[in-house]
Amino acid sequence: MSAGVFVSAAVLGTIVLLVALMFQRGREGGVSARAVLRTYLYVGSLAGIVALAVGLGSVVDYGLARAFGDDFVYGAAPVAIAVPLCPPGAVSCVQPSGTDLRKQQQERQNERRRNEDLIRGLTFTFFGALFWGAHWGARRWLGEEAAPGTGLRRGYLMLGTAVFGLGTIVLLPTGIYQALSNTLLPTPDNVYRPGADALGGGIVALPIWLIYLRLAVGDLRGGA
Question: What is the pTM of this model?
């Protein structure tokens, strides 16, 4: 869930930023190669941060599942299974009930999802940090980090603030609601109980949003 929110917001915001920049450059008489490179570096930096956030959100989900149980994050859905484990006519074989079979399959599914979260989290975190670091270094080499107040930098900071602000306001309340409803409200065994799979993404989005917001406000004050 968190990956879809981050990616959708980032793609939409990036399109808006690129259209605005191209329109502004067109009015000024053309687009230089340096402007195209600068735009790419900022878009690449944002892509790296989004990938990093997706990875960290998956790692947080893995940690929550380890701390509070798989059902807390991934939910507990009744699965109808009719798999006989005892051959016909067996005397000493004990056939487990349907509830036991459903529980076993649900546990195996949640265990796989938990391990997938760990692998996805570590992979996206590593490559997201690597991708962002490469673009950040290139921006410093071009002198972008030492020149606050430029339109492109402001657009990048505002876009990051909007992307992770949207991620925070969507994922964090949803995750908290899911966690509280699962904890406080009784749920029958034969009713699907969704997990708090949005909580990890919301926890990660909050500090990143605050960092972007602080940088955006500081850039506007410095430029003014």
Answer: 0.76
